[in-house]
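quick one before i forget lol
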Amino acid sequence: MALDEGMDRRGVSRRRMMLATGAVAAGAALSQMAGWLNSAEAKDGSTEKWPWPYEKLDPAKTAEIAYSEWYRVFCGCAVINSVFSQLREKVGEPYKSFPVDAFVFLEGGQVGWGTICGSPAGANIVANLIIGPRIAGAHEGHQIAADIMQWYSEAKMPVFTPAVAKQPTPIMTTISDSPLCHLSVGKWMKASGYELKSPERKDRCARVAASTAYRLVELLNEWKDGKYESTGDFTCAKEYGITGQYNCNECHGDLVPEPPKGKGV
C-alpha cells in the first residue's frame, strides 16, 4: 500500500514534523542566545556594566588584521573584529562569544546606502561596548566615537599601508571632509579614476578600515592609561539647533534643512 504524500512511515504528518522541527530549531536558537548572554556577563553579573575588560593592543597589528578582514567581511566588521579577535585571546568573554559577523551590514555605508562609512561606525561600536555608552555615564566612549568621526573626515585616507598589499597599484590619498561613505569613496574615485568595482577601490577601502582600526586602538590605549583627552571640536547640534556635519552645502546646496528658530538642543 502506497504511503500518503503527506505522511511518513510512522504515520506522522510531514507538516507536523516540520512544525516540530521548527520549534526545536527556535528553542535551540533561544538556548544559544541565552548561553551567549550568560557567557558575556561582566564579573558583576551584568552585560550592561562598563567598562568591559580591555588589554592594550598593538595598533599596527590591529590594522593588519583589519586590512585582511576587509576582504572577508568588509569595513565595519573588519574594524570590530580586528579588536575583538585579539581580546578574545587576551581576555576571553564577553568578546569570545560576541557575534562580530552580524555587523557585515555596515558595509557600503550601511547595506550600500552610502551613509556613514562602516569603518568609523565599527570603531564607534567598539568604543561604546568597551567603555560604555553615554547614557550609562561613560562619556569617554561617546567622545572617542566623536573623535573618530572628525579624524576620519579630516585625514588623508588611507593613512595605513599594509606590509604586504593585496593590490600592488599605488593607492592615492584623499580627504573626504565627511564621515559619509558616499563622499569618502566618491571623492576618491573621482580623483583616482578607478571605478567602484575595481581592485584598486576595494584595496583603498581595506586600507581605510585598517587606518581607522589603528587610530581606534591608539585612543583606546590612551584611555586605558588614563591619558585620553578628546580632540573633537564639532558641535553642530548645539551651535545650529540641528544635527549635521560641517560641510552640508557640498551635497545640499540651498536645500540644507533649517530648524525652527529658538529650537536648539
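fyi Confidence is low (pLDDT under 50) at residues 1-26, 28-40.
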